[in-house]
Amino acid sequence: MVVNIRLADRFDMDSTDTLGRTWAGWDPNATEKELWENNRGRHGFGVRVLEEQFASLSYQGTIRLVARISGREEMPKPESTQRKWALIGEVLPQGDPVRDALVGQPVAPGRNSFIYFDDPFGFSGASSAVASAEADDSAGQGWMQDPEKRKLVEDAAQDKLTHHYEAQGWTVDDTRFGNPFDACASREDEILYLEAKGTVTAGSTVIVSRNEVAWARNHPGDCVLGILSDVEFDDDGTLDASNGTFRAFRWEPDDHELDARSFDWEPSERKQIFQA
Asked: What's the pTM?
């Protein structure tokens, strides 16, 4: 999971700030390090945040920077009885796969100053080293190093899954941010939760998150996972949406199908719904 802090426009702080800040909020002229130091607190983070590894800052519904967090520190205020905290961590540089996967992604609007959502690797505690190693996997999903191409593949997979169910008379809503499923399909009194995975490999395994697994197990018979595999790019970097192989499966993860180290899921033919 990632904890995301929503930023307002820059505003001045009073002299009683525990971190010694003079301002907070979004300043387009500030460096990423300055933005992090001026916005990492004061928030009501519970102990849950200690289980997370990444934090992001968003402004106007878009993620602007990402940091690797290592803990929290209390920020007492004499006139307040509520405990508030600041995150401790370091800003991730450009080229880091976690940072590149998250920056530019939308964040759902809301009143809370922070929210949690699934990390781009799909499992808590992932590191950049793990991501780089998985990128060379020719059979499994891997992890594409080019964030723009990665997003194109992921979007193409979701489009394939969405169009299939819309053609069957379902209404499909995009829910990929802030939920353990990418889309929700409804038809009369029926509901299906859709998850889409895209890869340039053969797709023999795909990376799934612990939250995705837990949701599917808690909603048996109501979840579908679609895999777009063997995707190819043209020489100019464009993706032909008609290429690749798309398969959909009953998303019913069994223990023997999951690799607990990274929660790779190996789809079986007996669960396949269709192939296009």
From this structure: 0.50
> Is 61 in the same domain as 167?
no
SS (H, E, C) 169-230: CCEEEECCCCCCCCEEEEECCEEEEEEEEECCCCCCEEECCHHHHHHHHHCCCCEEEEEEEC
Q: Examine the domain organization and report whether 68 and 164 are in the same domain.
A: no
Both tokens of 274, joined, read 């269709």
pLDDT for the residue 264: 57
Shared domain check, 221 and 194: yes
CB 209 within 8 A of CB 117: no
72 lies in the same domain as 161: no
Taking each continuous run of H as one helix and of E as one strand, the counts in the chain are 5, 17
- 151 is a domain residue: yes
